[in-house]
Amino acid sequence: MNMRRKLTDPDALNPKPSRRRARRKGWSPAVAATMVGALVLGAAGGIPWLLASRDRAKGELLGQRAGQRVGTPSLLPPSSPSSSPSHTQPAGEGDAFFPGFWDATTLEEAREIQRAVDEGHQPWRLDPAAVAERFVRDLVKWRIQVVETSTDGSPEEGWTASVILRPYIGEAEPPSFPGPRHTLRLIGLEGAEHPAWFVAGLESENIVVNTPEPGDPASSPLRVSGRGVAYEGTLHARIEDDAGNMLLRADSQNGILMAGAYEPAPFSGDLRFSPPEAPSGILILSADTGVGPTPAVTIVRLRFEGV
Predict the structure, then answer these.
(1) Fewer CB atoms inside 10 A, N or C side of the chain?
(2) For residue 180, cis peptide bond before it (omega within 30 degrees of 0)
(3) Chain mean position to CA 243
């Protein structure tokens, strides 16, 4: 059953910063509200950004295929030899857990997207840099500088890629100062000659998570630790499951972790979250911001226990 909900108002992802911060900087609350990134307090709107982003991309793909007569692709591996490749998971074949989360959260969804790309739809999915630009644009409305892109793998072994990027941050409109480096990690499916890329993780050099590691079993309370630096030392945590449920809101007291204010310092905390309705999800840590888009975001893929 498809449990995903559709975003009707993308602007609902834009947070409203506190009046305290707006006064201290000398801005009006209205001006400050337009300058703060979507993840810092975005959960207050009650609409998961990731779900909306995936639905937009999938909607475009379905729209492109609507005018073309194509057979409904099987979501299972073919039981007999076929001229079409069988796209399988890049690691842990047979495991229900899929390491990607944008814009496919299951192996079946990833196969469907790969088939569409093989048919010539959405060629941007073949370019790691283009995938990165689209992902972070939907994430926090970042414009980015792509520093370096690398790919590795083969159709026999599956594919991995990484994109090193820097978001433009600051008070200017549009923001123009290159921020901290981030590494976006991508995966492609086994069997694909020309892989579509799926996001499997994002790590800021300013928010380094030691625990949990991607794919670790996760239950409430979730122990989170690492090293980071942020405005006033404040990191915001939120947890979503793949069904689109917000399990921990970034604006809740339980969603605050304290790191370094001027230089990286250890952070740790136990995050309590609501029961998930899907077997996997994501942990999002974002830096608090004094002005402009949030300068740092780290996302870790989670595998929920007992679901």
Answers:
(1) N
(2) no
(3) 14
Maximum CA extent, the chain: 68
Q: What is the dihedral of CA 212, 218, 219, 223, to 10 degrees?
A: 0
3-state secondary structure 72-114: CCCCCCCCCCCCCCCCECCCCCCCCCCCCCECCCCHHHHHHHH
Distance CA 200, CA 90 (A): 12
* Nearest alpha-carbon partner for 40 in 298, 259, 240, 288: 288
- Give the pTM: 0.74
Q: What percent of the chain has pLDDT over 90?
A: 58
Q: Which pLDDT tens digit goes with each residue over 162-197?
A: 999 999 988 888 888 899 999 999 999 999 999 999
Q: What is the 3-state secondary structure (H, E, C) of 124-145?
A: HHHCHHHHHHHHHHHHHCCCEE
d(CA 227, CA 205): 9
Read off the pLDDT of residues 80-108 as tens digits, 9 standing for 90 and up.
333 334 444 444 444 479 999 999 999 99
Q: Tell me the HSE value of 304 on the side-chain side, using a 13 A CA sphere.
A: 21
To 10 degrees, what angle do helices 49-66 and 128-140 make? Answer: 130
Across residues 267-286, what is the average pLDDT? 96
Angle at 31 between CA 143 and CA 136, to 5 degrees: 20
Q: Residue 16 is which amino acid? A: K
DSSP lists the bridge partners of residue 283 as 239, 300
Q: Which two tokens stand for residue 19?
A: 């009046």
pLDDT in tens, 24-66: 333 333 333 333 333 333 433 334 556 666 666 666 665 555 4
